[in-house]
Each structure stands twice: as structure tokens, then as C-alpha cells.
Design brief:
The complex is a heterodimer of chains A (330) and B (345). Chain A has 330 residues and is an alpha+beta fold. Chain A has seven helices and 17 strands. Classes of the chains: A alpha+beta (330), B alpha+beta (345).
Chain lengths: 330, 345
């Protein structure tokens, strides 16, 4: 599974330009599915037919990651930028970004009028791609950049710039692999959605298209287990977090119970998650058409939306196990 | 120029019927079906030759920002609230027209002679302002402008060279572009269009219009922000007047479909049509609502740059208008099923 994780978390895919991630996933899941389709906004919809006795189940993870977009290039070839999704100025300075055409850049900061004791404002930051003029600048206004960090694994911990939510994608790819020889009662749709980080956009339209009876998102959630962190009863390595509620949704109690019961029965460690700020694709999936019972399995993740997001491999593996148990249930 | 009639018409969000009428009149002889939907948007079908199996949606919004009367003072003044993004700094001293009968009024303010030290440096809060229509009592004021009456800025459309000024170019200029496109020859595919209501208060008309029209892709036509006025430093300019249609890559409401954006850029470059990119990350338009309807609609937005939008008087350049019409017309002529195919590596 680590190879899948590496390939996915190192791929380039800020919101709106998820093509590389989609190609990686598609190559892996095409042999495992009955039908694979790219929908109108670019989400990958993978269908594994059921026996007709079960439900129409949608599992979702989003392919996009946060990033930056070039908004202006000055006469010296420095690129000003805006953010794609929830990027913090604190984690920008000195960081490296890569563009779809392979161009790398570093984020620098103006020096005049800057107070080094305070977090910079985005207007004070710029991307240096090594250009000397507007004319020889290899990026253009509108080009999207992703942060650059290779995966590292140490003990059971995994660290990357895009655990949110490639680790969810990895869980669902691995799930499909493990289901290869299994005949499911449920009609299973696995959606790898676009544009979550800019407003849960891809999952909404994909869920409309799939029209499921049950929807579960697989995403990351923050933890409360680092020094002086804000209180939150989720820890790394203590099992997948079963969503109770977040600021965008209340998980359907039936879905939450289903997840808890299956975890208990199979002796899979789990935690219950209440997230005060933030939400997932499940929030919009539950509101499409006439409504869909929806829930979420969250993989605990430290330093979410920084270039070094940390998860625990055991939580990842247990998430796959939990989903397998859920799908076995009629 | 139909832009004059569109700009001078009053049509604050929720009360767009005057603009509706101008639009219907302008396109009636050039399209196959016209329908006013439940939200008041004008939905249009212009059937194509059938050579290409696509439904392509064009959208412009017919509403504008404005004011709504919410109460009356005993001495005849009208209290109001903003409808849409009103800048409180621009209200004192503004000429307005109240109600469908366009009763002239002015948003009054204390004369400069009476200001206390420092008072002139503060922006008056909207709560503290009132519209004066010359009524003598609350009875008279209630009779002329009951609660719920709309008011708009009173601004005449003027042309001087390629530069024009007027109110509500956001988005009557988009409406004018859309009318021009609908008056052209039929396309190989079906064109469906929405002159949408209630954009300024949350992209509301377009959301249901797109649901009804069920297009394969969509183009929003807008009048957008040009903040190219003199300033000390600008690390990310919005758009510039006279430099052609502005293409949106990403705003707060949507990310433009890369395939449609490529079609627009390739067309502009092939035909040497001036064009520019709108500063990414700001604003939001109907495309934001349209692209999320049903199972999703690839969308793009093309805008005419306008200075001073959401103020009593905006300014734009007619060359930008002509180039926007041309870019859209030529891009539509090049649009095929293949435009929407995805590359796979």
C-alpha cells in the first residue's frame, strides 16, 4: 500500500487541475472496476456492480490539494499569487511550489515594511521561478502551483504535503484492490472528487450523478494530541475517526451507528470525531437531490494544510478494514 | 445602442421586469423559444442546425444592486437598506429614483458648514441615511413609496468616443453582449440562454435557470471590476480598460473549466483579439451557481472590464464590448464535441 500512497501524495493536483492524480488513480482502478467514467467537472467515478440485493453506496475521497495561483508577473519576472483553498501565510515563506509544466519556484517575501515578528500578508509574498523578466518567466497568470515535499515514512508515521486527501484516495484505491475477487451485494460507486478545497464542489455534482442511498466520505481530520493544541478528542494512531459532526454537517445517526457497530464487531480501533471548524464532501453529498444519509471516516492528521501533514499508517489500514466490514453488511 | 436602454432601465434584484421587457423585445425575432421562469429569468432557446449535439448555455444577469425602502420618518424621509453590494461611502449626495414611477430623490447629508471637527472624515452608516423625495409627512411618503419599494441610482448613459458611462453596467453590458450573440446566425448546436435575476444577492436566478436548461457547458457574460486607477502600488491588477475581454481563471465562486478557457485563449490568439486575465481569486458570478447544478456543468466567464462598478456611475470602453462579442462569437464557432474531450496521458 505504501507505493500507492507515495505515488498519490507526491502527484500534482491543486483544485481545478487534478488531471495527474486522476490519471494515477485511473490506471490503478480500471482493471478492478466494471465501469470508470470522468464526469462533467472532472471527478473520477468508479463503478463496481453489486448483485442487486444491496444499496447504492457512494464512497468519496477528494483528489485536489490546496495550492497557489499566479495572479500577476512583474517586469523582473517575479510572480504574485493568490491562494487555492486554505493556505496559511505562515507556511508559505521559504516553501517550494511546482507548476503543471514542471517549473519550480520558491516563495519569497518583500523586505521593506515587513515586521519579522508577525506573519506576513499574502500581498507581501511572491514566487521566484528564477526568471529575469516578464518575457522569460516560464509561468503565466492563472497557472496553479502545488507545494513540493516528498513522502517520508518513519516508524508508523507518514508525512506529506497532500495527505489531505490523497490518503483518502489511497484508502479507496486499496479498498477496490481488496474487493477485486469479492462479489458485493451493494452497487458500489467510488468517487474521486475534484475541487473539495475550494468549496466541496466536485462531490456535490458527482453525488447528484450517482444518486446514492448511502454516502461516506473518507477525508482527514485534525487532532488534539500535539503540544498546547486546541482541545480535540482525536489522536494519531488510535484508529479511524467516525464523524459525529463538524461545522458543515451532522452525520446521519444511522451511518454513524453502522460504522461504530462494524468497528466494534471486527475489533477495529476507532474514535468519535467532533470537529469544530471544517467539513468534508459528506456535507454536500447529504443535501443533493432529496437528501442522502451520509457519514464520514476521518483519518487523524496533524498539521493539516501545511506542507507536512502527518498521519499514522495503522489508522490508514484500519480505515480500509472498516470500510470492508461496512460493505460486507447487507 | 441597446446598452443605453439597458443601463437606464431600473431592475434591482427581485424587480427586474423592466429589463426583462427590453430583453424580450430585442431578441423576439431572432430566437425560437422565450420563457419567463419561476424566478423571473428570461430563458431562451435558439435552435442550431443540429450538426453538433450539444446544448451550450449563455448567461448574463439582468438585476443590479440598489436600495429598498424599509420605513418612513415622521417628516417624510424614506429609510432604506442595501440590496446587494452597496458601498456606503458613495451614498450621501447620490441622486436616486424611487419605485417603478421613478420618483426622483436624493440621499441627504448634513452640509459641510455644520460639521464638527473630525466628523467629515467618517463614512456615514447606512442606518443614519435617508432618501428625501420632498414628501412632507410620513403619510405622504408611505403613499408614494410604501415599504418594499425599490430605489436605484439616477444616472444617464453617456458616450464620449469609445468611452461610455452609465449605471448598472454590471451586468447590463453582459446582457447587451448576450443579445448581440442571440441576434446572430444559428450555431451548429442549440444555444440556450438565461437573462438571470438576483445575481447580486447570491447567484439565485442562474442556479435554477441552469437546472431547467440542463446545458453541456456554459459561458457567463459579465461586466467586471477594473481597478486600474492611479495608486501607489498594485501587486495584482484586476483588469485594465481598453485591453479587451477579461477571462476568469478562478474567482471565489468557481474555477473556470480549463478546456473552455483554452478555447477562448486559442481563439483570441488565432484572430489577434485583445484579451486579458482577470485577477484570480476575487469576485463571484453566475458561473459559480451554474457549474454546480445537477451533475455539473463545465463553465467559463468572459467579462467587459468596468471601472467603478457597484457605484452610481461605471465606465467602460466600447472597444472592449466589441471585442467581447467578437471573441464569444468566434469561440462559439470553434466549439465542438471535441472541445469537451479530456486529454489522458
Amino acid at each position: 500500500m505504501k507505493e500507492v500512497i507515495r505515488e498519490l501524495v507526491e502527484a500534482y493536483g491543486p483544485s481545478g487541475v487534478e488531471d495527474q492524480v486522476r490519471d494515477v488513480i485511473r490506471a490503478r482502478v480500471e482493471p478492478l472496476a466494471d465501469e470508470v467514467e470522468v464526469d462533467a467537472l472532472g471527478s473520477l467515478v468508479v463503478h463496481k456492480e453489486g448483485t442487486g440485493e444491496g444499496q447504492r453506496v457512494l464512497l468519496d475521497a477528494h483528489m485536489d490539494e490546496i495550492g497557489v495561483m499566479v495572479s500577476y508577473i512583474d517586469e523582473k519576472g517575479f510572480a504574485r499569487f493568490t491562494t487555492i483553498g486554505g493556505v496559511y501565510p505562515l507556511t508559505c515563506l521559504g516553501n517550494r511550489v511546482v507548476f503543471a509544466n514542471g517549473t519550480m519556484g520558491v516563495i519569497g517575501m518583500e523586505q521593506k515594511g515587513v515586521d519579522l515578528k508577525k506573519a506576513p500578508k499574502f500581498e507581501q509574498l511572491f514566487i521566484d521561478v528564477g526568471a529575469t523578466s516578464r518575457e522569460d518567466c516560464p509561468v503565466s497568470v492563472g497557472d496553479a502551483g502545488a507545494f513540493v515535499r516528498p513522502l517520508f515514512a518513519q516508524g508508523t508515521r507518514l508525512v506529506s504535503k497532500a495527505m489531505d486527501d490523497r490518503i483518502g484516495c489511497a484508502v479507496l484505491v486499496d479498498l477496490l484492490r481488496r474487493l477485486e475477487e469479492t462479489e458485493l451485494a451493494h452497487d458500489l460507486y467510488v468517487v474521486f472528487a475534484v475541487q473539495e478545497e475550494v468549496g466541496l464542489r466536485g462531490a456535490r455534482t458527482s453525488a447528484y450523478g450517482v444518486d446514492p442511498n448511502l454516502a461516506i466520505a473518507v477525508d482527514v481530520t485534525r487532532t488534539g494530541d500535539t503540544p498546547e493544541s486546541k482541545p480535540m478528542a482525536v489522536e494519531l494512531g488510535q484508529g479511524p475517526a467516525i464523524k459525529v459532526q463538524d461545522s458543515g454537517m451532522i452525520a446521519h445517526p444511522m451511518v454513524r451507528e453502522l460504522l461504530v457497530e462494524q468497528a466494534k464487531a471486527a475489533e477495529i480501533p476507532y474514535q468519535l470525531e467532533i470537529l469544530e471548524r471544517g467539513t468534508t464532501d459528506a456535507a454536500v453529498m447529504q443535501l443533493v437531490r432529496a437528501g442522502v444519509p451520509a457519514g464520514c471516516i476521518s483519518i487523524p492528521c496533524r498539521y493539516v494544510h501545511s506542507p507536512s501533514e502527518m498521519v499514522d499508517q495503522r489508522d490508514v489500514e484500519n480505515s480500509v478494514k472498516l470500510l470492508l466490514e461496512v460493505l460486507k453488511k447487507p | 445602442m441597446i446598452l443605453k436602454a439597458l443601463s437606464e432601465a431600473t431592475g434591482v434584484s427581485g424587480n427586474e421586469k423592466a429589463v426583462q421587457a427590453i430583453v424580450v423585445d430585442a431578441i423576439r425575432d431572432h430566437v425560437d423559444e422565450i420563457e419567463i421562469d419561476a424566478m423571473g429569468s428570461v430563458l431562451v432557446t435558439k435552435r442550431g442546425t443540429g450538426a453538433i449535439n450539444l446544448r451550450v448555455m449563455l448567461d448574463a444577469h439582468i438585476d443590479e444592486i440598489g436600495l429598498m425602502i424599509v420605513g418612513h420618518e415622521s417628516d417624510g424621509y424614506l429609510k432604506f437598506r442595501p440590496v446587494g453590494g452597496i458601498d456606503a461611502r458613495l451614498l450621501p449626495g447620490a441622486l436616486v429614483q424611487v419605485g417603478d414611477d421613478r420618483i426622483p430623490g436624493v440621499i441627504g447629508l448634513k452640509p459641510v458648514h455644520l460639521l464638527k471637527p473630525g466628523e467629515g472624515e467618517k463614512v456615514a452608516k447606512i442606518d443614519a441615511l435617508a432618501i428625501d423625495i420632498g414628501a412632507q409627512s410620513d403619510e405622504e411618503a408611505k403613499g408614494l413609496a410604501p415599504v418594499g419599494t425599490y430605489a436605484t441610482f439616477k444616472t444617464e448613459y453617456r458616450e464620449f468616443g469609445p468611452t461610455v458611462t452609465g449605471k448598472a453596467f454590471d451586468d447590463r453590458v453582459g446582457c447587451a453582449v448576450l443579445i448581440e450573440l442571440l441576434r446572430g446566425e444559428p450555431q451548429p448546436f442549440d444555444l440556450v440562454a438565461s437573462f438571470s435575476t438576483q445575481e447580486e444577492i447570491g447567484l439565485r436566478g442562474a442556479q435554477v435557470a441552469a437546472y431547467r436548461l440542463e446545458p453541456d457547458c456554459a459561458f457567463g457574460l459579465e461586466g467586471t471590476i477594473a481597478d486600474d486607477i492611479p495608486k501607489e502600488k498594485d501587486v495584482s491588477p484586476t483588469t485594465t480598460l481598453g485591453q479587451g475581454p477579461a477571462l476568469t481563471v478562478m474567482d471565489r465562486s468557481f474555477i473556470a473549466d480549463r478546456r473552455l478557457l483554452k478555447l477562448l485563449v486559442d481563439t483570441a490568439e488565432a484572430l489577434d483579439i485583445p484579451h486579458q486575465f482577470k485577477q484570480p481569486g476575487i469576485g463571484g458570478t453566475d458561473a459559480g451557481a451554474i457549474h454546480k447544478t445537477r451533475a455539473g456543468v463545465p463553465a467559463a466567464t468572459v467579462s467587459v472590464p468596468c471601472r467603478y462598478i457597484h457605484s452610481p456611475v461605471a465606465m467602460m470602453n466600447l472597444n472592449d464590448f466589441d471585442n467581447t462579442v467578437r471573441l464569444m462569437r468566434e469561440s462559439l464557432a470553434r466549439l465542438t464535441e471535441r472541445t469537451l474531450e479530456r486529454e489522458r496521458k
